[in-house]
Design a protein that fits this description.
The complex is a heterodimer of chains A (226) and B (487). Chain A has 226 residues and is mostly helical. Chain A is built from seven helices and no strands. In chain A, helix 1 runs antiparallel to helix 2 and helix 2 runs antiparallel to helix 3. A two-stranded antiparallel ribbon of chain B has the order 1-2. In chain B, strand 1 and strand 2 form a beta hairpin. In chain B, helix 3 runs parallel beside helix 13, helix 9 packs antiparallel against helix 10 and helix 16 packs across helix 18. The chains are: A mainly alpha (226), B mainly alpha (487). Chains A and B meet through helix 4, helix 5, helix 6 and helix 7 of A and helix 5, helix 6, helix 8 and helix 9 of B.
């Protein structure tokens, strides 16, 4: 097991990259400008790519380099570009309605991270070796889940919902680079590719929403109830 | 032999997709889809029979045909064949011939992704296949391009993508947990997960399972993650509703049951089964509350799907040979019965030009024959004998009595009675209530809309009167394969 014998330098590189990604999630949570979301998402993807590459370097899984390149390319460039196109086409610059004040959503987000830590701590009690890196990876994986769902529930704009879903996936991807670097390459590549299709589908649906429902805000999508 | 059967099973919808897209002709697309559906149905049964004599594994362990997967393939193929026939009659009513090739391509693509999910031997690839079903079916849900259907499609893709990402997290955690036993790199086959599960740290195993349960439960429509389901099922064209309800829910249930099989025999097995039972009974109760006060005819069917997926979850959750047999029999019967119900609802919606129950009156005047089939189907789906759902629900109930779930059994029986009254009172209103004499034009008769209803109804009646002994043996084999022979 590669995590069982990593030295403190490696541990601190992995930890800082993971923590920076978590911080970027808070940037997304705290901002109302759609452009900032996309930039933060792109930066987060580059961090994950750097993490893949560094895990690949230290652990000897050469295929992680390929994943790092693909992550940077797909998540870091193509997806943000697609998202920016949607933002421009929709001509919405920011969230209009705030279900929660920025400050309160940040506080709730912080509580979510603490909760994630408690669960992660509980789950990895049998770990020997670099337990703190494992707990950190699990915490961030779960925290990004919670934050993604939080964004999904307090944001109305279609594009923010897409981004929230992408944050959900980024969290899993980030955690899996540290926890299971040996996961078969095929699966990771297919998941990356899958993401591209997801965003393309969302892009088409957003266009339908504008044309047929006349709105891209989930607040106004209230025809179907009961 | 089995390899050829599987290739045909997957190539037939693929050929239908290609023909639909290349020909750009609505008629060719229709017939190609019907042909693919019928071929799949004919191939799926020998495939299941050949899987009976042992697992069939190919493609570097990525593909597996076992009795369980084969059974779900049969259920999906039945719905695919029936609803592709019905689609011919129904979609012509929409007068959108120009877009029909795209519709049929998506329709076959939807079937193809579900069939692929059933033969995946790797938990990660299974996730991808289920995710693909969402992407393809989203555009089918939004096909009518009205405000409501677009809204339903949007809610569908957002809720389901969010939910299924939990299943991905759970899958990654399963992989991580087993990597302590099997080493850092291994093929995540169901068998490998099951072998290593007893040695995984129990809290980790439990959290992984719960994440997977919630994730695939979202896709299967278990309450409280069912919120997308009534919208998507009611706003999509009727044949698509039948596919969503009769086929897609089964494919997702397959994932839940396989993971449940993985944790069976470990120290968290009891809690995991209780969680599945909990979701099942909660879905049941929620569905009933909405069925009783429902105003839309297709939403009524959609909540009935939530109810029946709840029954399946109960069957798998109770476990044991009896519970699994009940759940599997219910899967088949629900696929048949719900297809029949959505076909009838589609006919009624087109004739009365309304989705509201209150606008649909004197159905028998408009549909003298298919109206009777629809009514009998409603009696069947409410769980009354002599139709097949009665037998399977009764078996699930017996499984509850045998296990330690007596209180669930009581709740289950009460709910079944409520749903019987609630569901059929809507049908009484639609068939026998007084109504203002509005002139409703009869739809032009076509065999395409009537024959699939007969084809769904007759087996339902036969299976209700006679549970073939071969099926019992088959279900027992599934029980052994899911639990790895241990209990």
């Amino acid at each position: 097991m590669f995590l069982a014998h990593i030295d403190s330098l490696q541990a601190s590189i992995f930890s800082s990259l993971a923590i920076l990604s978590l911080l970027l999630t808070f940037v997304m949570l705290g901002s109302h400008w759609l452009k900032n979301y996309v930039y933060a998402f792109a930066a987060q993807s580059w961090l994950i790519a750097a993490l893949s590459a560094s895990v690949g370097y230290f652990s000897g899984y050469k295929e992680l380099y390929a994943i790092a390149v693909l992550t940077a390319l797909f998540r870091g460039l193509v997806l943000p570009w697609l998202l920016m196109r949607i933002v421009h086409r929709l001509n919405v610059k920011r969230e209009i309605h705030a279900v929660l004040q920025t400050s309160s959503s940040l506080v709730i987000g912080a509580c979510a991270v603490m909760f994630a830590f408690v669960i992660a701590n509980h789950m990895s009690r049998q770990q020997q070796g670099a337990a703190h890196v494992v707990i950190l990876a699990l915490t961030i994986m779960l925290a990004m889940k919670f934050l993604g769902f939080l964004m999904l529930s307090v944001r109305d704009e279609a594009i923010s919902q897409i981004l929230a879903l992408l944050v959900l996936e980024n969290g899993i991807f980030l955690g899996s680079q540290i926890l299971v670097p040996g996961m078969p390459l095929l699966i990771e590549i297919v998941i990356l590719f899958d993401l591209l299709i997801v965003v393309a589908c969302f892009g088409m649906l957003v266009r339908f929403l504008v044309v047929h429902a006349g709105t891209t805000s989930s607040r106004e999508l209230n025809r179907l109830v009961g | 032999m089995a390899q050829e059967l599987l290739s045909v099973l997957l190539l037939a919808p693929l050929a239908a997709i290609a023909l639909s897209l290349v020909s750009r002709s609505a008629r060719i697309a229709e017939y190609a889809t019907v042909a693919a559906g019928v071929i799949d149905l004919l191939v799926s049964i020998p495939l299941l029979l050949s899987a009976r004599s042992g697992l069939i594994i190919w493609a570097n362990q990525y593909v597996l045909v076992d009795v369980f997967g084969g059974w779900v393939i049969v259920c999906i193929s039945i719905v695919y064949a029936l609803s592709s026939m019905y689609a011919v009659g129904y979609m012509r009513l929409l007068n959108e011939d120009g877009r029909l090739p795209a519709f049929y391509a998506l329709f076959s693509g939807f079937a193809l992704t579900m069939l692929m999910a059933c033969v995946m031997n790797n938990a990660g690839v299974f996730w991808i296949a289920i995710e693909l079903t969402t992407l393809v079916s989203t555009f089918l849900v939004g096909f009518e391009r009205e405000a409501e259907s677009t809204e339903a499609a949007w809610k569908y893709i957002v809720v389901v993508s969010g939910g299924i990402s939990l299943a991905l997290l759970g899958t990654v955690l399963f992989y991580w947990g087993s990597s302590f036993v099997l080493g850092p790199s291994y093929a995540m086959t169901w068998a490998a997960l099951r072998l290593s599960a007893p040695k995984v740290y129990p809290p980790l195993l439990l959290i992984s399972f719960l994440l997977v349960l919630v994730g695939y439960g979202t896709k299967a429509g278990l309450a409280p993650m069912h919120t997308w389901l009534p919208d998507a099922h009611s706003e999509s064209p009727a044949p698509v509703s039948a596919m969503l309800s009769g086929a897609l829910l089964n494919a997702s249930m397959l994932g839940i049951a396989r993971f449940l099989g993985v944790v069976t025999g470990t120290s968290v097995s009891g809690f995991a089964h209780a969680a599945v039972v909990g979701f099942g009974i909660f879905s049941f109760v929620i569905a009933i509350l909405f069925i009783v006060r429902q105003t839309g005819v297709k939403r009524l069917m959609a909540y009935s799907s939530v109810e029946h997926i709840g029954v399946q979850a109960l069957g798998f959750g109770f476990g044991g040979p009896l519970g699994i047999a009940g759940a599997l029999y219910h899967m088949l019967n629900h696929s048949l019965n719900k297809s029949l119900m959505f076909f009838g609802a589609g006919n009624a919606m087109r004739a009365y030009r309304s989705k509201e129950i209150k606008n649909i009156r004197h159905v028998l005047k408009i549909f003298p024959v298919s109206g009777i089939l629809w009514l009998l189907g409603a009696i069947g789906i409410a769980g009354a004998p002599p139709f097949a759902l009665f037998l399977s629900e009764f078996t699930v109930l017996r499984a509850a009595m045998q296990g330690s779930y007596g209180w669930v059994a009581i709740l289950f029986v009460i709910s079944l009675i409520v749903v019987f009254i609630g569901f059929l009172s809507h049908f009484r209103a639609m068939y026998f209530d007084e109504a203002p004499d509005a002139e409703i034009a009869r739809l032009p008769w076509t065999a395409w809309r009537t024959v699939p209803m007969w084809l769904a109804f007759l087996p339902l009646l036969v299976l209700g009167l006679w549970w073939p002994h071969g099926l019992w043996n088959l279900f027992h084999l599934v029980f052994l394969s899911v639990t790895g022979g241990s209990q």
